[in-house]
């Protein structure tokens, strides 16, 4: 697909990029499309399992507050684990003051959710979407992912459509969420935004249904789900069910959460750790409709690239 050349700035606040070849391929592809890719040196950084030491990874985020010229897109190299370590030292207020109101897209998912949600608390709408190595550096690029990425970053009003279990839903609210494990890890900390009348969109990887249920119950018991208008589930990949589960699966989890909360729970959005993923602006206004098995989520109010 043809897109306007943009400036990308790479950040690596989480895990070491173990697939260096994929990251290099992603940079090559972006540059071949006419994009400028800055700070590629963060790709090779390593300290134990992390993408550099604490100071280096903190500076990836805190340094955004001092940027004279903002890039078009600030892109996480990969997820993994590591962002949670940085939370006490991150200058969320300073970064938010620099980014807020500017046409810049801060994009990533997975572990990066732990940075995106505190920024949302400070009024920064970021994008839960593809990352450098896993998506732009995939052996076979997903046209679905690329098309939804560029559409989210350039469309003031964006509508996603997909098939789900038949029901009747019509709600509006603030779209937020991301990786479920990261959301759960922020409960009881100063870094989880208190979203009222929200549309909570969740995804995860390598989490068995009982772990997903346990995290959702934690959100329910802490009062978070009671403040939401609806839940949308993305992809939950990498879990292996066994004979011991005896029919207990993700559908069992969704049924329990519906019964417990009374909330509409809309499944099967292509979002998360999968080759095909939409890009969601976290903090945008959303209108969720389901008629029969046809779902739409219309998003607006998010920053778009000029």
From TrEMBL:
Active site, renumbered: 110 (nucleophile), 203 (charge relay system), 273 (charge relay system)
GO molecular function terms attached to this record: carboxypeptidase activity; serine-type peptidase activity
Pfam families, alphabetized: Peptidase_S66, Peptidase_S66C
Annotated LD-carboxypeptidase N-terminal domain residues: 10-129
TM ranges: none
UniProt keyword terms in alphabetical order: Carboxypeptidase, Hydrolase, Protease, Serine protease
Domain (LD-carboxypeptidase C-terminal) ranges: 172-287
Presence of keyword Protease: yes
Biological-process GO terms, alphabetical: proteolysis
Alphabetized InterPro entries for the sequence: Carboxypeptidase_A_C_sf (IPR027461), Class_I_gatase-like (IPR029062), LdcA_N (IPR027478), Peptidase_S66_N (IPR040449), Peptidase_S66C (IPR040921), S66_fam (IPR003507)
Family to which the UniProt record says this protein belongs: Belongs to the peptidase S66 family.
NCBIfam families to which the protein is assigned, alphabetical: PRK11253.1
The protein, known as: Peptidase S66
